Structure prediction request, 160 residues.
Amino acid sequence: MFCPFCRHPDSRVVDSRTSDDGTSIRRRRQCPNCGRRFSTTETASLNVVKRNGVLEPFSRDKIISGVRKACQGRPVTDGDLAVLAQKVEEAVRASGASQIEANDIGLAILPPLRDLDEVAYLRFASVYQAFDSLEDFEASIGQLREEHTSRPRPTRSVDE
Prediction:
């Protein structure tokens, strides 16, 4: 790491700390030549392989904008979308890969979106799971209904 002050080609790490969200490391460094200190931030890069083969950096904003289209007219807030994008990024980074296919990101969006809003989920799934017919929609709706009936219902207290 070059010193930003004297351009010496080496530095010594004095302190390292992870960021609050755990996605980056802040390092405090000292130059052995001039003795001045400076900070660096290190993050693991994650690139998305688009359908045409082009690589681009992963972006939560692109997830939010893509899911926002599916959520139009639904009771979903910007905060909800930010949390969803964070969950997707955590799931994608947990794979340990430095590159991921764009379609795999779309598929990673589906589970948290289903939990957030089922109508938006169906809209989004129709694109990423390539629904071709009404039967595809019916099968997905049937699966959602099955999940609803298999979930235990919350018990109500006598006071309610």
In short: The beta strands are 12-18, 24-30, 37-43, 47-49, 55-57, 99-101. The mean pLDDT is 87. DSSP finds five helices and six strands in the chain. The radius of gyration is 23 Å.
